[in-house]
Structure formats: C-alpha cells, structure tokens
Specification:
Largest sheet: 9 strands, mixed
Number of strands: 20
Catalytic activity: a uridine in tRNA = a pseudouridine in tRNA; uridine(13) in tRNA = pseudouridine(13) in tRNA; a uridine in mRNA = a pseudouridine in mRNA
Subunit structure: Interacts with SIRT1.
Radius of gyration: 28 Å
Helix content: 25-40%
InterPro entries: PsdUridine_synth_cat_dom_sf, PsdUridine_synth_TruD, PsdUridine_synth_TruD_CS, PsdUridine_synth_TruD_insert, TruD_catalytic
Subcellular location: Nucleus
Number of helices: 19
Strand content: 15-25%
Main location: nucleus
Length: 662
C-alpha cells in the first residue's frame, strides 16, 4: 500500500451498525422541471445555505465544470471487475463515427439510477459533490492476481536466455530501412517488397538481417537475392495483404515457456483496443493474447497479459513506437491467463473540487471502510442508449418474442451518425441489405443482426440473432437479471436495513442456505447474499422472496420455471453479496491550485524517476484522494456513489452540468 507521509491520514473508528440510518435516492425533477432553470438554481442556492440539515438526507450539489462533461463519466468508463461474464466482447461499440449530436442532447434519452433499481444508501453522512475523471489520470486501476499480488509496472528489463537473439538485430538496420519496412508492414505504400543491400556480404551478416526484419516487423518474410552482382535481403508479405502471421513454432526454444507474460500499462485505452493495437504492430491475431479481465478506457490501468510465442524482446521494442502504452515485467511461463482468475482490482481515485467539509469526508470514508456500499450493478450494465439492454432481455428473449428483439435493437432512436441512418433505412424498407449499406462498420450488434437477417430471412430471427457472438447475446439476459437484483436489494434494504433476519440467505461451501431465527446473531450483513433469478437458485423466506415472484410475474415470467426452450437463454441464476466492504481503504484530502496537474505519481512516473508532485498546504481547490481494493463483479462507481451520494448516471450528471452552465 502507498502511504501518504506528508499529510494527515484518517484512520477508522468503530461504527455502530444498528445506528446507521438508511437513506434513499429521491426521484429527480421531471423533464418539464428541467426547463425552469432559475427555479433550480434557486434550489441550488437554498441547498448550499442549509448545510445544517439532517444528515440522513441526500445532498446533490452541482459542480461548475467544462460544458457537456459529466461529473461521473459512466459511459463505458465504469471500472468493472467482471469475472468474464461479458468481458470478452467481440463486437465493436455501437457508437459509430459520424456527426454525433451533443452529449447532453443524446443523454436526454438515457437512464438514471432510479430506472434500474439503484435507490438506497447505507451511510448516514450528508452527501457532497466532487468531479470524477476530470483527468483520466485521476482514475488508476491495478489488477490483483489470483495470488493476491497487485500488478505494477516497475521493470523494463528483458529476460535473457541462451537462445535469445542478439542485441545486434536492433542496430543492423538503418533508420531509413526501418521506416521503409514499417511502411511495408502496415501497408502504408504501394510497394510489395523492400530490398536491403548487404554491405558486408557474409553469411553471418545476412542471417542477422534476416532475424532483424522478422523480429522487428512481424508478418514480413525475407529472402536473399542477387542483383547486379550484389546481395540483397528482400522483405515481403508472405501471407498476403489480409492474412495475419501465426506464431512460428519452429523457432521457439524448447526450454522456454510458450507464453510471454508481461504487465501492460495503458492510458485512456480499453483492454481490447490495446490488444488490437499490439496485434496490428506485431502482425499477429488478437486471439493469441490472454488476460484475466478487461479494463476500461478513461483511466490509467495496469494488468497482466500473456501472449503465445512472442519474445520479450519483440514486445519491449514496442515501447519505442507506441503511444499511451508501456510493456514490462516480462517472464516466460507455460500457461496462458484465464478470464476471472483475478482476485479483483486496486483503485486509486481522485475526486477533484470536492465541496464536503473535512468532517463530512471523514464520516463518508469511515462508513465506506467499516460498512461498505450496496453491491448494485452499475449503470454500465444497462447500456446508454434509448433502449436499455434489460428491456431486450425482459420483453423479448425471455418472453420468446423475437420480433420484439429485432425491433428493439433496430428501431430508430434520436441521434446522428451512421447508426441512425442505418436504423432509419431499416424502419423505412425492412431491407437488411439496404440498411447495411448505411453502416460502414458492420461489427456492431446492429450490423451483426442485419447480416443474420440477410442470411436467414425475417422469418428466422432466432438464427439471425444467433450470429451475434454468444457473450453479447447473453448480455441482454444478464442485464435483466441485474435489473431484478438491483430492485430486490433496494427492497431488502428498505424493509430490513442492515440487520440480518430469519429467512435471509448465506453461502456455505458454495451452497445457499436459509438462516433460521436461532442463527441470526451468527452472521452479519456482509455474509448475506441474494439471488439473480434462475432455475438453480433459492429465494429468501421472507417478504423479499414474495417480491421476486411478484416482479417476475409482472413480466409474465414464472419464478418456478426459468428455463428457455433455447438452452443458451435459460437462466440458471447465481448469488451475489448485498453489501461489499472494500479492503485496503486509505484516503487523504489534498489542496491544489491548477486543475491540470496530476496529484500523484503513476508507475510510469516512478520508473522515469519523476519526483512526486509538490502540493500546497492551502489552495484554491480541495481533492479527495482515495484508495481501495474491490473483489470481482463489483463496480467502483457504486463505492464512489456511496461516498458522494450522487446519481452516477450520465443522464443525471449531464443534466445537472447543463442546467448549471446555461
């Protein structure tokens, strides 16, 4: 753990669990109310002046910030510790390039927390405002491996073995040769080959050049040619323009592990984007990379990656030519990585321009450390468009209404860009070929579904939908399960608070059992789980069990028969803890004057020998720097929500910013 020696650290004090009062997130103003800007500003001023109000009430303050920038940026930027359920997405995002409408206008049609059952808090402190991810470097994520080790980038050295190529391969080519070879590798010119003259014509020198080209420019092959009495090494694409090189088995030493493991440090890139970039530069297929979990874009993240039969030297060479990436801590092992093998993630988060007093901050962070937060599925789980993913799962797949599946995914919705034109063409013609012509990039969900409809026809939507990769299809059902779970845990907190009651569920050896009256005092709220609905789970034996049945019945689903005639869409269910208590929680309040400067060093800063930032004792602004570790399948934004007591949806934050800045 990083300590903060120069400023005061807050330490935990005992908490009275019985004394904690539940607070709810009140329904926000309607769209009509939003138009009355003056009235809302007056309410803002009134809230500011009534700081002495009840601590159990939610306080939502509006932060003056750059236009259009949400306070909590959730759009695919939630940091989610998923265990592989939806991590390995093979589709591109649905937000295609084009002339997008303003972010604020787009999010008028989005969801707020209330829509997906996120309504309760477990702490009693008065909320305060703060800006999350004002800079992406304010959100740093370090992966925690299955052995509990926190991944750090702290070593650029390359492991040496007897069969490693010599360092000479990195110097034998001139800068001009390297430029021409890179252009050839990336198809940046019309040339089909590059010829390199061998000045000192010896077999040893030719061998070094052959190795240098193949090592530094994967995907290229070489041959020796005589031209006018001179020897040339000719580089070319052996596999053709579109094909990707496969790992060479014949050149890999038997004594070396088949997988090169390394730590990937990346800035403002998600994991799949990063792997696609690495694949492009190495000229290999992305599927030879493996990882334990994906990390999102708007953050600095550090995680372990493994790649099949690519040397550490080749990977280390990428540090010279890639922006926003660094690779290090190389080692060779005999196994890849598997999704879900991680213990979780460790977060370092800065909330800038906080309005809370030191007492408010201390109370909020003590509560987070001692009690924790409601383990809601965050807003990322439910999509950011006008059609929430859980609606597709609820009304369509589970109810076997496949026409509704098609309509929900392809129906027109507000916006601009290629996807809007594609959906409008579909609504007008119901012709998948015509709609596809409006979509330059066809690897989004809409493009895949249209390709399926073109192949199988409108009378076989089930098969057409099946073209979408399995993980993406199941996302809709998992989203519906999450929607039910969020609503039920809110009811559980409202009904019983943080008390353990008879009929609650706990896990014993992976099996859920009900708690009897005699065992109520044996457990705490941190032991209690609640089920995601399915055919292989049991439900609480109290009012919440009945609430599950009522909510599913309202959606025309039978709680006792959650199997689907298509096996993939049958819900087995699962269990999820209702309260998560973060580990390794530390925090400090720091002052700063310039919002552009970083407030702490990253791994890369430390490797490059940069001194820690010098911060003033008093400054124009205050920031809360917090650190905590979370297990898999939990959302960091839900922990931060509990601290700030603010709605984390993009729509709500954009709405607040837009109103305040008019």
């Amino acid at each position: 753990m990083v300590l903060f020696p120069s400023r005061t650290l807050y330490h935990s004090v005992p908490f009275d669990m019985e004394a904690v009062e539940m607070t709810s997130l009140k329904r926000p103003h309607s769209e009509d109310d939003v138009g009355n800007v003056d009235e809302i500003k007056r309410q803002k001023i009134s809230e500011e002046s009534s700081k002495t109000g009840s601590n159990s009430e939610q306080s939502v303050d509006i932060v003056t910030e750059q236009p259009g920038k949400p306070l909590l940026e959730d759009k695919k930027d939630d940091i989610l510790n998923e265990e592989g359920e939806e991590e390995d997405n093979e589709l591109e995002e649905s937000d295609e390039e084009g002339d997008p409408e303003s972010f604020a206008d787009m999010m008028k049609h989005g969801l707020i927390e209330l829509d997906v059952g996120i309504t309760k808090f477990v702490s009693s402190h008065k909320g305060f405002s703060g800006i999350l991810k004002e800079r992406y470097s304010d959100f740093v994520v370090h992966e925690i491996g299955k052995d509990g080790h926190i991944s750090h980038l702290d070593d650029f050295s390359v492991p040496v073995d007897d069969e490693e190529p010599s360092e000479e391969i990195f110097t034998v080519l001139s800068n001009e040769d390297k430029q021409h070879l890179e252009e050839l590798q990336l198809f940046k010119n019309k040339e089909t080959s590059v010829a390199i003259e061998v000045i000192e014509d010896t077999k040893e020198k030719r061998t070094i050049i052959h190795h240098a080209v193949k090592s530094l420019f994967p995907g290229l092959e070489t041959k020796t040619e005589d031209r006018d009495g001179k020897k040339y090494i000719v580089a070319y694409h052996a596999a053709g323009k579109k094909a990707l090189a496969n790992p060479r088995k014949h050149s890999w030493p038997k004594s070396r592990g088949s997988y090169c493991h390394f730590v990937l440090y990346k800035e403002n890139k998600d994991t799949m984007d990063a792997i696609n970039v690495l694949s492009k530069f190495l000229r290999v297929k992305p599927n030879i990379f493996s990882y334990m979990g994906t990390k999102d874009k708007r953050a600095i993240t550090v995680q372990e990656i493994a790649v099949l039969r690519i040397t550490a030297q080749r990977l280390a060479h990428l540090n010279k030519c890639l922006m926003n990436f660094k690779l290090g801590n190389f080692s060779y092992k005999n196994h890849p990585l598997k999704l879900g093998e991680l213990q979780g993630n460790h977060f370092t988060v800065v909330l800038r321009n906080i309005t809370g007093t030191d007492d408010q901050v201390q109370q909020a962070m003590h509560s987070l450390k001692e009690i924790g937060f409601i383990n809601y599925y965050g807003m990322q789980r439910f999509g950011t468009t006008a059609v929430p993913t859980y609606q597709v799962g609820r009304y369509a797949i589970l109810q076997n209404n496949w026409n509704e599946v098609m309509d929900l995914i392809l129906k027109p919705r507000p916006g601009k860009g290629y996807l809007v034109k594609c959906r409008e063409e579909w609504a007008k013609t119901k012709d998948p070929a015509a709609a596809l012509k409006k979509l330059p990039v066809k690897r989004c969900v809409e493009g895949q579904l249209l390709r399926g409809l073109l192949k199988y026809g409108l009378k076989n939507i089930v098969s057409a939908f099946g073209i979408i990769p399995r993980n993406n299809r199941l996302m809709y059902i998992h989203s519906y399960q999450s929607y039910i779970w969020n609503n039920m845990v809110s009811k559980r907190i409202e009904e019983y608070g943080l008390k353990v009651v008879s009929g609650d569920l706990v896990l014993k050896g992976g099996t859920a059992v009900h708690i009897g009256e005699a065992d109520v005092d044996v457990y705490t709220i941190h032991d209690i789980v609640m089920p995601l609905p399915g055919f292989d789970v049991i439900y609480p034996k109290h009012k919440i069990g009945d609430a599950y049945k009522e909510m599913l019945s309202a959606d025309n689903l039978d709680i006792s028969n959650m199997r689907h005639k298509i096996r993939d869409y049958s819900l087995s269910g699962a269990y999820r803890k209702i309260i998560i208590r973060p580990q390794n929680v530390r925090w400090e309040v720091v002052a700063y004057d310039d919002p552009r400067i970083p407030l702490f060093n990253t791994d890369l800063d430390n490797l490059e020998g940069k001194p820690p930032p010098i911060l003033p004792t008093e400054g124009k602004f205050k920031a809360l720097k917090m650190e905590f570790s979370l297990p898999p399948s939990t959302y960091a934004t839900m922990a931060i929500r509990e601290v700030l007591k603010m709605d984390t949806s993009i729509k709500k934050q954009t709405q607040l910013n837009t109103i305040w800045l008019r």
